[in-house]
Amino acid sequence: MTTQTEQILENELVEQLIGLGYEYLPIKEESDLVANFKRQLERLNGISLSETEMQRLLLQLNQGSIFERSKRLRAKKLELQKDDQETIYLSLWDQKNWAENKFQLIRQMRMDGRYKNIYDLNILINGLPLLHIELKRRGIEMKEAFNQIHRYSHQSFLMGQALFSYTQLFVISNGVNTKYFANNKTGELNFKQTFYWANKENQKISRLEEFAQHFLAPPQLFKMISRYMVLSEANKRILVMRPYQCHATEAIVNRVKNNGGNGYIWHTTGSGKTLTSFKSSQLLQELPKVKKVVFVVDRKDLDYQTIKEFDSFSKDCVSATENSKQLIQRFLGRDKLIVTTIQKLNSVIHKKNKREQLLPLQEEEMVFIFDECHRSQFGESHRRIKDFFKKVQLFGFTGTPIQAKNAMDTKWGKQSTKNLFDECLHRYIITDAIRDENVLRFLVEYVGRYKKTATANEIDIEVEDIDRQELLEHEYRLEKIVDYIIKYHPIKTKNKKYNAIFCLPSIPVLNKYYEIFKRKKAEGAHDLNIACIFSYGSNESPEGQDETQDGYTYRGHSRDRLEEAMMDYNASFNANYNSQSSQSFDNYYKDIAKRLRDGQIDILLVVNMFLTGFDSPRLNTLYVDKNLRYHGLIQAFSRTNRLMGSEKSQGNIVCFRNLKQATDDALLLYSDKDAPELAYSPSYEEQREKFDEKVMALKKLVPTVDSVDFLPSEEEELAFVQGFRELIRLQNMLSAFVDFDLEQTAMQEQEFADYKSKYLDLYEKVRQNRKLNKTSVLEEVDFELELIQRDEINVVYILQLLQKAASASAEKRSLAIERLLQQLQAEVSLRSKKDLIEKFIRDNLPKIEEADDIPDAFEEFMRKEQAASFQAICQQYDLDQEKFEQLVKNYLYSQKMPSSDQLLASRKEKPKLLERNKIAQGIREELEGFVGRFME
């Protein structure tokens, strides 16, 4: 049986879409596309446009970035001046009634940009291409369809009248797998942000035929584009909601529309609850019956974070409240969306004189949405809200709902999330998110003397829940743990590419750990940036609940210790925070959050803070010396499992207490009852066995490194790339284990490096083919180079090796240089510099008498080579040197490639129209190569 071709797949989809109500148009040229757009605008707005009026409109539409065009699409009216000077206002679509819009379909549309491109399928709404579908035959990786769209976006979407720049969504499919994603600037398209559609039960809908039925039917597609996309003002990005976010939002809105009572959303941590709650709040505001939407968070730090995130989605969309007086003003004012803390809200509802000021709202339709609805709401505040507001509906969002198994004791008896919020309207649990690759698995390691096998994790420390607390908190034990962290932190965090939180049982223990880290840094044992934060007014029990220790709070002592830590922090970061005022402490919190996200803090010591609600993709490790249970455990673990590139393969949990049973119990409670093991990353033994199996399979294809050069066809080269890529992925996961040693596997380190060199040779072949516009089956695979780029192998490292080689005997020097050149061949980050380093070794190294002079000599060599290369590029493309130098600086600063217009503006003279694309591409490649060779 033959494989279904791309053409057959396309034909079948076209037939299906026509059956769903789309009108097929045989449009192939842009002029016909524009003519149809004009007809649809005239129909929708009940007007007639002259050709000159249409040209004025097209000129207006062809302005701004993709983000600005998306805002224009959603504008209520567009202003247009007619030929007789009358001003009219046009709509591009009817946002309230989907059926008033015209849904059409075109295929194989030709667009000429830098290259000639032919688009598979485009869906038009009122003549504007708002959805692009790219198909690949069965068996081809989805990433290739994504890469093709990436090229189209770069090469032709902005050509001509640029109507394709109004594309909102892309769909990619190979028939078996189908995903969707939002349009954005070329450099911001990310395959990690492509999503499968799913039904309300989170069952994936991946086959193209079924996807089209559920997602591409006109009512659903229109709903996705008009209701379930968010334009994030903070970073000018277009966001599209994932299926579970859409289902949850729809459930809440329908509940309010139908006066259906309360409800809660169980969406696991890391699944984007803030976006879901924002969109729910936004859509609820549009309902005339709703007077106020109040979003309630548990603590001031979450209040700040929520307002910041809501504001990033829509500038000034939300009113913050500094105190209860201001909260009352917001309630009585015109603002429809309010964000506040449960503490401020409780203050207003609890006190009679404040509560009476809200009497005008007592009979109004009010909606309260609670974030992480499992802590402070278990008390009188929840009841007071329900008692005071007569027409109130309460909704909760949580990743870890309190259930019967871990119900909390209150004066009204055992309370669970269901008791307070009634029905669960939608659930998306941690195992759903892991299956969908929206969060990572946990790699949980237990460090202590109970280990039964020979492993680096066996250290002589107490780990059990023993009664003798003084042993668990003894400095001897804490010092051993600090030594362990110092030794293995680089392994866990990929040489500090990521960072960690260390959660501790109490403030006194935190202070002991902080002092040990500080002392060892002064002794030169480590160079880690350690910070700490805690609320000095209270302490915590091992279970993580706020309470004092030994019957009193450590106000004086703890505050002094916090002040000392803040002084250290100020010295490290040239800051000026103190614990004397709540405002300064709040700013300290915000600064720590920012520096932790930016990677400037290596380890943050906490008791409770930052263990819920804090999101940072850079955080990949949690050290635990604290007893955690149920929702507290899942919340803390989940700080580590956000996605951040291919190299971050799991969230690392390093436990210095025996939390095995507590972890199993928590994951069983909050995951798929039939498959809780999905939340765990495979063990070291399992992954090493799999690695060895893949090595054996690879060597059947290429028994030796040299045999890669003699593979008879591109299909076999592709098989090698896919096989070695699997080894790279497994090696990346294994490298997180402290016991991992490549020498103990079926492939030695040098052999792995040699195969990697051949792998990179094939990648270079693909790059060259693309430049020559040649097709290759190797283009169908993602090489995932980020997995094999090692930050520690850089120019400084190479120079150190050269210095060692220069000091050795002639025979050893020759061997060392040979190995060094092999290493150059195998390192992604140094390939662009390979010819320069080889030239330096060949022409300059023999003339250098002292090894210590090598770094200065290399720096002078690179300076001359850089100047010569700069001159050559400017001469080749007739560039103004000052303008090109500014382009280089801008590119280095922003990490974003300049547009074609910016590149061409650096020339002394404008190029001919037909040469623009070719010249711009040439300058682009030279700029990228120049920065790679000399600046990175």
Automatic annotation (TrEMBL):
The keyword ATP-binding applies. The keyword DNA repair does not apply. One of its GO terms (biological process) is DNA restriction-modification system. Residues 254-419 form the Helicase ATP-binding domain. Its EC number is 3.1.21.3. It catalyses: Endonucleolytic cleavage of DNA to give random double-stranded fragments with terminal 5'-phosphates, ATP is simultaneously hydrolyzed. PROSITE patterns: HELICASE_ATP_BIND_1. Keywords: ATP-binding, DNA-binding, Endonuclease, Hydrolase, Nuclease, Nucleotide-binding, Restriction system. Coiled coil: none annotated. It holds the Pfam family T1R_D3-like. GO terms for molecular function: ATP binding; DNA binding; type I site-specific deoxyribonuclease activity. CDD domains: HsdR_N (cd22332), SF2_C_EcoR124I-like (cd18800). The type I restriction/modification system is composed of three polypeptides R, M and S. NCBIfam families: hsdR. PANTHER family: TYPE I RESTRICTION ENZYME ENDONUCLEASE SUBUNIT, TYPE I SITE-SPECIFIC DEOXYRIBONUCLEASE PROTEIN SUBUNIT M AND R. Subunit R is required for both nuclease and ATPase activities, but not for modification. Belongs to the HsdR family. This is Type I restriction enzyme endonuclease subunit. The lineage of its organism: Bacteria, Pseudomonadati, Bacteroidota, Saprospiria, Saprospirales.
